Amino acid sequence: MERTLSIVKPDGIKKGLIGEVIRRFEAGGLNVIALKMIKMTKEQAEGFYQVHKNKPFFNSLTSFMSSGPVVVMVIEGEEAIKRNRELMGATDPREAGKGTIRKDFASDVEKNIVHGSDSPETARWEIDYFFPEEELFEYENPPCLPDGHRGG
Ligand code: UDP
Ligand code: MG
After folding, report:
1. Is the overall model pTM greater than 0.85, yes or no?
2. Closest CA to 6 of 62, 78, 83
3. Is there an atom of ligand 1 within 6 Å of 109 CB?
4. What share of the chain is helix, strand, coil (3-state, %, to 5)?
5. What tens digit of pLDDT does each residue of 67-119 get?
């Protein structure tokens, strides 16, 4: 079992994709074990993306990420980090594979609907950035049916 941080970015919220993103996670066998809507300050977005502070897109990215509400989530499942990144698709939607969230909905390389952690270390740090341990709720679910829905 692995945990990762997902964010539905401000463009995803405006496009009405909160439910669609969660649906894809759940159909993909990932449990949402924590979730909240927040609006980041510029400083909070800068802290979150500090690994990118020397990149040319840092100022624009952190302005965008603090421009409106986002939904932050912790998702859990087997190989959750890899699985989430597969569901998201490549950073640039023009390079994202068919059927991925970014291919289907993103408008450009910055406004690409979702964030997902990229390694176990990053995931731990990113989860901790938004959620205290008591806001994480684990639960079991029956195996997925072929259409992605869960029985029971
Ligand atoms: N980004 C951007 N321009 C770029 C590369 C990235 O605006 O040339 C933004 C984009 O929103 C991306 C985020 O910065 O999701 C973080 O970049 P990263 O390379 O970590 O991509 P990700 O892990 O989100 O796929
Ligand atoms: Mg990244």
Report:
1. yes
2. 83
3. yes
4. 40, 20, 40
5. 999 999 999 999 999 999 999 999 999 999 999 999 999 999 999 999 999 99
Residue with tokens 């910055």: 110
Q: What is the 8 CA–ligand 1 centroid distance (Å)?
A: 14
User: What angle separates helix 18-27 from helix 80-88, to the nearest 10 degrees?
Assistant: 130
* Token pair listed for 108: 């450009």
CA 44 vs. chain centroid, Å, equals 17
Could you confirm whether 149 is annotated as catalytic? no
DSSP H helices in the chain: 10-14, 18-27, 42-48, 58-65, 80-88, 101-105, 120-130
pLDDT, tens digit, 9 for 90 and up, residues 27-54? 999 999 999 999 999 999 999 999 999 9
Tokens at residue 90, please? 């490549």
Distance CA 56, CA 87 (A): 27
What residues pack around ion ligand 2 (CB closer than 5 A)? 118
Q: Is 38 helix (H, G, I), strand (E, B) or coil?
A: strand
